[in-house]
Every structure is written in structure tokens, then in C-alpha cells.
Amino acid sequence: MTQIFNFSAGPAVLPKPVLARAQAEMLDWHGSGMSVMEMSHRGKEFTSILEKTEADLRQLLAIPTNYKVLFLQGGAIAENAMIPLNLLNGKSADYVVTGAWSKRSVQDAQAYGQINIAASAEAQGFTTVPAFNDWQLNKQAAYVHYCTNETINGVEFLTVPDTHGVPIVADMSSHILSRPIDVSKYGVIYGGAQKNIGPAGLCLVIVREDLLEQASSLTPAVFHWKTQADNQSMINTPPTYSIYIAGLVFEWLLAQGGVEAIEQKNIAKANLLYHYLDQTDFYDNAIQHEYRSRMNIPFRLHDESLNDAFLKQAETQGLLQLKGHRSVGGMRASMYNAMPIEGVQALVEFMQAFEKSNS
Ligand SMILES: *Cc1c(COP(=O)(O)O)cnc(C)c1O
């Protein structure tokens, strides 16, 4: 069988050793006689899984003790609505729009209060990040929201703007755990699991404790961060199996040497593809270089009539799910932590061969 490399944007590739371990533990977790799926979420077995998962995540991201880690459901899109409900408290909020996901965050928040667009790169076709100096930030805002990696557009940034003490709320769905971050610079970090963490169905919310006191009384209990923080994310039944797999991914990451080590691998993978894209006219990536994403790399064939042939031939080579998002077109290679460099090498070799036979 051809070796398969899965470039899906999400749900996405998971580390093979994690899947193998889940398989080995599927019917009988650690001699309990039960699958993790069958366990009471309040029993001692699952409690130990949840505690280890949180501890490993805290170690990976060096999460300070004054931050709570919540394991919620509904994905990042549910949180888009729950952020204003938990934080606005009668104030306004500033949003920076750098791509499709942060634009969506604005739409999801607007029903709950005054949402201001502090800056937008839409006029530039979402190929850049507006300069921090140009962000129209309001010192009285409840928070500033942005997306640090735009999965669809392929724009990433991690330098943190000075928001004059206004808490930053960051959607990190598609690059969390791909590189070190300074959690203390953020008020809230959130992300759906199905990009770089584990299976769909789980959303991580990392929130500074002092921000837990301003939720609207309309906030549903399952999305009420303080209620969930006070109840170990168990005001309802949490997505137990997704949490378990996320825990296995965290263990795998620690064994890889943590986020510092995985960052080096991610840099090497991204460099390989960008370097090739930059020395050919056959393909093109339009993102301003300093904001190019390491995780999601959109590119176009100069001759778009070759798109179908490209995708079909890629698939026969075992290179799957390279089609770009329907709103952007072209191609997209998502290269999360679990994508080995061999996958990117195989992709570049295929792209070179395709270029050669079509020019
Ligand atoms: C995928 C994604 C989302 C949406 O996640 P859901 O789990 O579908 O709610 C939001 N933001 C970013 C940056 C994403 O990559």
C-alpha cells in the first residue's frame, strides 16, 4: 500500500503512535475491563485521565497557576458566542479581522453587544496582518479578540500587541501547541481540538481567573466559564473520549521534547514547502512572508485549469486532502504537529514532478 500523508485542515492527522495506543487500549483501559468510552466521567479511572491530561497540557504550555483550563464542547464556534456572554458585561469589545475565522468571530459575537472592528486586512485579501500601530483600540473595551493562525487564509502571527491592559482573547484553534507561547500575555486562549490536539468534540479554553467574574446571567451553564472552572469542566458530561485522545497526544508531545522541539520540526517542514514555492512560477503563495503560517499553507497553480489533475494525481501518490477551502480555492497543505517531514518531502517531490510534466 502507498504510504498515506493526510494534509487535511481538520479534522486532521493524528500521531500514529497515539492511534496505535488507543487501539491497544480500546477494549480494556489499564486493566479496568472497560473502554474509556464506557467509563463514568466521575469515576476514579476517568478522573485520573482528566487530571493527567490537564497536568500535561499545563507543563507543555507552562500555563501559570492563575489560569483555569476548561474542557468544553461546541468547538471554537460555540466559544465565539460564549466569549461575549462571559466577558462583555455591558462594555464593548474590539475585534481584529485577519481572515475568514476572525471575521466569523465578529459575526458570532455581534448579537451580544457592541463589537468594534479595530483593524481589518480584508481589503488586502487577507494576505497580511494590519500593523499594530494602526489598530484602533479602545482602552475601555472588555477585551481585544483576534485569531493567531487563520486556518483558511494561511496567516499566522504571535507577536503580542500592547493593548493597554485590555485582556487579549485569542483563537489559537489551528496552531496551539505548535510553538511555545507566553500564556501570561493573554486573557483567554481557546481552540477546537480537531486541528492540532485530538478528535473533534472538544474545545479547550484557558482563562485567567480574574476574568471569571463578569459573565452575563444569560450564559448557559455548560458554557459558563466560572461554573465549569468550579466543577472541573463537569457541570455536564464532558467529551470523555476526545479528552482521553488529547491526553495521549500531550504525552506524545512531551516525549517529542515538548513544544520547543516540535517547533523546530514545524519550522523545517514549513521552510521546505515555502522554499520550493518561492523558486517556481508554476505555484504561488500570496501571503506576506513574515505572516506566513507554518501550519496551513495555501497555494495556487498558475494555470488553474490543472487543479483537478493535480488533486487526482496527488491522491494516487497518497497525498490526501490538498484541496483549498471552498471560499479561497486553489490548494492548501495543512502540516500540523503530527505531519512527519517525510510527508512534506513527498509533497514537494510530487509538486516538482507535476511541474515538470506540465510545463
Ligand atoms: C476550525 C476553526 C474554527 C472552527 O472550529 P469548530 O470546531 O468547527 O467550531 C474556528 N477558528 C479557527 C481558527 C479554526 O481553525
TrEMBL record:
What GO biological process terms does the UniProt entry carry, in alphabetical order?
L-serine biosynthetic process; pyridoxine biosynthetic process
Please give the cofactor(s) recorded in the UniProt entry for this protein. pyridoxal 5'-phosphate
Write down the EC number.
2.6.1.52
Q: Which residues form the Aminotransferase class V domain?
A: 4-347
Instruction: Give the enzyme class.
Output: transferase
Give compartment(s). Answer: Cytoplasm
Q: Which domain of life is it from?
A: Bacteria
Instruction: Enumerate the residues binding L-glutamate.
Output: 42
Q: Please provide the record's keywords in A-Z order.
A: Amino-acid biosynthesis, Aminotransferase, Cytoplasm, Pyridoxal phosphate, Pyridoxine biosynthesis, Serine biosynthesis, Transferase
GO cellular component annotations of the record: cytoplasm
Q: Which reaction does it catalyse?
A: 4-(phosphooxy)-L-threonine + 2-oxoglutarate = (R)-3-hydroxy-2-oxo-4-phosphooxybutanoate + L-glutamate; O-phospho-L-serine + 2-oxoglutarate = 3-phosphooxypyruvate + L-glutamate
In the record, what terms sit under GO molecular function? O-phospho-L-serine:2-oxoglutarate aminotransferase activity; pyridoxal phosphate binding
Pathway assigned to this chain's UniProt record:
Amino-acid biosynthesis; L-serine biosynthesis; L-serine from 3-phospho-D-glycerate: step 2/3; Cofactor biosynthesis; pyridoxine 5'-phosphate biosynthesis; pyridoxine 5'-phosphate from D-erythrose 4-phosphate: step 3/5
| Cofactor details (free text) | Binds 1 pyridoxal phosphate per subunit.
- Indicate yes or no for the key word Transferase: yes
| Magnesium keyword on record | no
Q: Where does pyridoxal 5'-phosphate bind?
A: 101, 151, 171, 194, 236-237
Concerning PANTHER family, the annotation shows: PHOSPHOSERINE AMINOTRANSFERASE
Q: What's this protein's family per the entry?
A: Belongs to the class-V pyridoxal-phosphate-dependent aminotransferase family. SerC subfamily.
Q: Give the record's subunit note.
A: Homodimer.
Q: What does this protein do?
A: Catalyzes the reversible conversion of 3-phosphohydroxypyruvate to phosphoserine and of 3-hydroxy-2-oxo-4-phosphonooxybutanoate to phosphohydroxythreonine.
What protein am I looking at?
Phosphoserine aminotransferase
- Which species is listed as the source? Methylophilus medardicus
What is the organism lineage in this UniProt record? Bacteria, Pseudomonadati, Pseudomonadota, Betaproteobacteria, Nitrosomonadales
